[in-house]
Design brief:
Largest sheet: 8 strands, parallel, barrel
Structural class: alpha/beta
Radius of gyration: 16 Å
Number of strands: 10
CATH architecture: Alpha-Beta Barrel
CATH topology: TIM Barrel
Distance between the termini: 17 Å
Order of helices and strands: EHEHEHEHEHEHEHEEEH
Number of helices: 8
CATH superfamily: Aldolase class I
């Protein structure tokens, strides 16, 4: 069970250095950077690696989809990433080989009828955290929620990031859910945007104030 005071916040899909600095000033715990070229929030063409590497006031998470180990570790080094989020079809063995070098968050895309304890079991020793997001045809966020009750009914052995369409209007629902579930962090993205990769910082501030 997670105590609300310790609930972490991750804002994903960042593409502007100034906004990363603003997140750090608001005591956001993690900033997520998508290194998947098909994403409209692809960070590789928008952020200078040296600038991000030099900025250490926030935990930096790189998001990858079915990328090679060599390329992942190269980007971790170039951008000074603190963790990686594997959002594709990566095997437990692959995740474990990355975990030897850097903390790993394994994302699972959820429809709502899966046995999550069975899905996660092969990965329990291979990763540091799970992340549950809404399943879509393409990889990445949909801005829509899945049925969180499937998490409540599952024996999930790892602390996890809760994702999938979380917005300002969900503060009370989130608070209630985290009281009785093993939520390590909230992962927010598209419902706080004015355009892909550009965040409404006022909306993020309101969300943080509501959660606290």
């Amino acid at each position: 069970m997670v105590v609300m005071e310790h609930l972490k916040i991750k804002v994903c899909g960042m593409t502007a250095m100034q906004q990363v600095e603003q997140l750090a000033a608001m005591d956001v715990d993690y900033a997520g950077f998508i290194f998947y070229e098909k994403s409209p929030r692809f960070a590789g063409s928008k952020l200078a690696a040296a600038d991000l590497k030099a900025f250490t006031a926030i935990q930096k998470v790189g998001v990858f989809v079915n990328e090679s180990k060599g390329r992942i570790l190269q980007i971790v080094d170039e951008y000074g990433l603190n963790a990686v989020q594997l959002h594709g079809d990566e095997t437990a063995d692959f995740c474990g080989s990355i975990k030897d070098k850097v903390p790993v968050i394994k994302a699972f895309r959820i429809k709502g009828d899966e046995d999550l304890s069975e899905i996660g079991k092969p990965y329990e020793k291979a990763v540091d955290y799970f992340l549950f997001d809404t399943k879509a045809q393409e990889y990445g966020g949909t801005g829509k929620k899945f049925d969180w009750s499937v998490l409540s009914g599952s024996n999930i052995a790892k602390p996890y990031f809760l994702s999938g369409g979380i917005g300002v209007d969900d503060v009370e629902q989130v608070k209630q859910f985290t009281l009785t579930n093993n939520v390590f962090a909230l992962d927010v993205n598209s419902r706080f945007e004015t355009a892909p990769g550009i965040k409404d910082m006022g909306r993020i501030k309101a969300f943080l104030e509501g959660i606290k």
